[in-house]
Amino acid sequence: MSRLVIAIDPEGEPLEQWAKLASQVCEEAWGLKVGLPFLLSYGLRGLGELRRACDKFVIADLKLADIAPVMKSSAALLRGYVDAVIAHSFVGYAGALDELKEALEAMEMKLILVASMSHRGSEEVIDPSIERVMEVIRRADPWGLVAPATRPQIIRLLRERSFPQKIFSPGVGAQGAPPGSAIAAGADYEIVGRSITRAPDPLAAARAINLAHRRALESGRGAG
Fold this sequence. Notes:
It is a single chain. The chain is α/β, with parallel strands linked by helices. It has a single domain, classed as TIM Barrel (Alpha-Beta Barrel), CATH 3.20.20.70. Helix content is 44%, strand content 17%. The chain has an 8-stranded parallel β-barrel, surrounded by 4 helices. Helix 3 (68-76) runs parallel beside helix 4 and helix 4 crosses helix 5.
């Protein structure tokens, strides 16, 4: 099984280019992740085209961080187009993540919460509050978590504290973490964007990353 989630982050390219790329790398991907640049560039039509090109698990990386009615309304617009939505943990449970999770379940979508981010700024506010963040995560009981490959100690902490959720790790490649390093630390999936999508041969790049994942799992340290 692939452990690779490919991030689709446009910079002005036509939608057809991304649909073609998704089709090329689809066999190597477990899923796809799209964020605001994709949604603002191509809208729901773009999501439909992406799914037709590669019918895999699709994550909407909205990083929702608002009161419940706003987050629920935002997620509802993507119903039928994506399988999961990413939200921030720091907004808290009551009046926010409690209602969002309930709404997503009713819409047959999964909730993924950010435990920490892959950039250095996460060490300024989010990481020093990781104990409180983990309390929110336990209450919300999401399906998945985001934890950075750039700081594998966060991944290990979540596993040591017996969080059972699927862990998705960004920061591989362009941000410096080696492919397979998050898997070795206990993540279930690595999120990779530019190292694949901007590579001269995206399919070969995706295959190389999947090979690194298999080696990490064979070492006996990866998540099962």
